[in-house]
Amino acid sequence: MALSGVISEIKNGKLYIRVQDDDGVCEHCAVRMFCKKSGEDGKSLVLEERPGLKCGDSVIVEQEGNILTKTTLLAYGLPLLFFIAGFFLGGLIPETALPQEVIRFFCACAGLLAGGGLGRIGAKRLSLKLERHFRIKLNKAQ
């Protein structure tokens, strides 16, 4: 989904784009998690400065590469996968004084923690490269 906005400020290598929320488009946008409420002016999106853009330019910001799916898989899919793997790997441990179900449960919980940690590390790395997932097109020059 595309967002339209106006570049309100450029400083320290960052573009501050005031998002125009016409007809509640922000509610259905995958980029909304990266927008910040900026008082009565509405929402603003902060991205790296791009060449050829000036303050007052009307722009269209589009999401590329389906960042929302990637972050969802890192946050939920990876821990679930590790939980299931831990459950099945727990079945390989021979039964001792603890019943097999308890061993599997603890192994699954350990897998869940490991998957959650790896998902968090992956999400942090993805957030460092967030800029490549947004395209800014000039709609109307100032």
- Spans of at least 5 consecutive residues with low confidence: none
Tally of DSSP helical segments: 2
Strand content: 25-35%
Distance between the termini: 24 Å
Oligomer: single chain
Number of strands: 6
CATH top level class name of the largest domain: Mainly Beta
Main beta sheet: 6 strands, antiparallel
Structural class: alpha+beta
> What's the CATH architecture of the largest domain?
Beta Barrel
Taking strands numbered 1, 2, ... along the chain, how are they ordered across the largest sheet? 3-4-2-1-5-6
Q: Summarize the amount of helix as a percent range.
A: 25-40%
Rg result: 22 Å
Total of domains = 2
Mean pLDDT: 81
**Strand/helix succession:** EEEEEHHE
Description of the molecule:
With 142 residues, this protein is an alpha+beta fold. It folds into two domains: 2-64 and 131-140, Beta Barrel (OB fold (Dihydrolipoamide Acetyltransferase, E2P)), CATH 2.40.50; 67-128. 37% of the residues lie in helices and 27% in strands. The chain has two helices and six strands, in the order E-E-E-E-E-H-H-E. Strands 3-4-2-1-5-6 form a six-stranded antiparallel β-sheet, with no helix packed on it. Strand 3 (35-37) and strand 4 form a beta hairpin. Helix 1 packs antiparallel against helix 2 (100-128). It is rod-shaped and about 75 Å long.
Helices and strands, with pairings:
Layout: E1 2-11, E2 14-19, E3 35-37, E4 43-48, E5 58-63, H1 67-90, H2 100-128, E6 134-140
Antiparallel strand pairs: 1-2, 1-5, 2-4, 3-4, 5-6
Helix pairs in contact: 1-2
